[in-house]
Amino acid sequence: MEKEEVVLFWFRRDLRLEDNRGLAAALRSGSKVLPIFIFDSGILDKLAEKKDQRVDYIHQALQQLQKELQQEGSDIRTFYGKPLEIFKELTAKFSVKTVYCNRDYEPSAITRDNKIAEWLEKQDIGFVSEKDQVIFESDEILKGDGTPYSVYTPYSRKWREKLTDKDYRAAAMPLGNLFSFKKKPIMKLQDIGFEKTAYRFETPTLDRGIIDNYGEHRDYPAKDHTTRLGVALRFGTISIRKCVKFALAHNATWLSELIWREFFMQILYHYPQVVQHCFKPQYEHIAWRNNEKEFAHWCAGTTGYPLVDAGMRELNETGFMHNRVRMVVASFLTKHLLIDWRWGEAYFAEKLLDYELSSNNGNWQWAAGCGCDAAPYFRIFNPAEQIKKFDKALDYVKRWNPDFESLEQQPIVEHRFARERALEVYKKALDKSKH
Q: Which PANTHER family match (predicted)?
């Protein structure tokens, strides 16, 4: 029996039908498009927590995607395993002309895609990846001398100068070119070794009420006046072009946050060593204390600093932490406790629903003072002062750390002492790097 000729569209960090560049390219190819999603065992097997909200989020987003595809007379096939092995199965079953997807910029994803592209080429099958999750990628924003930016402000300026309406125009989606095949349920969470969580997926929306006043309210954690779109951008359930278009019309501060996201993505692309190492090598000389008991107190939200503890409890309970509070808890870990930023980054990677390697890495290095566009090492947040500025009525602290007054817990370390100690350790490290 002759195999049916198709092109495959491999959904990854782009779980939507609207304005999806890679899917649009597949739909224009002239062949019928068979949509697939692979639960990558190489990634999932590393997750210790089997009630992982991120896996549940993906699963629920796929269910929504399947409904929309079925309304178009098509469907999606889901698989669990190593992507290359899945492609071997699919190419045995169908006459695959080309595999389409959207580009990923993380080092491990680039390695995976290169291996798959090489194997497909040997089978005389094309591999086409499109730019979708960013407005500008890799080499599109460079300095005059052709090197990448490592400081946000000039990068941001160039990004804005280069932007035209074409860059955020939505892709046309000729969905009539989807492959028609029999409906089949997507894999259950249990089939891939995970369990349901309390998370409820909702199609992401752009809320004018939040975005119009974003700059005024975003630093006050009790107001809950942030977009919560980090997870939607992470898994592509909303288009970055849609967000940028909305930001241009509504709020410059929110636009600058979207540009920060792209800045850190291109840093990771050009300097993949930052995954394990400080962007500024001289900071590798810091003599971290790495006290495991103190780290456990930080993780549990029992440091005796009400704002730090509220933030960590919010993270542990919900998988989210307000951005202002993220800066405070990261500064506290790296400066007050002198614990390696990599420990904190790994903890956030395990807990954050909106975990994004480039942003998590970039922001932790910023807080530790060792990143590309870092806060100077001598900027050390005072958690008590941060409460006075951003949670004066203690509304946020009381919500997540309600027993902070009754516990009368002694702070794990005294602020002035910790500050002086951090300054001394950092200065020694920098002096050492000069010799």
A: CRYPTOCHROME, CRYPTOCHROME CIRCADIAN CLOCK 5 ISOFORM X1
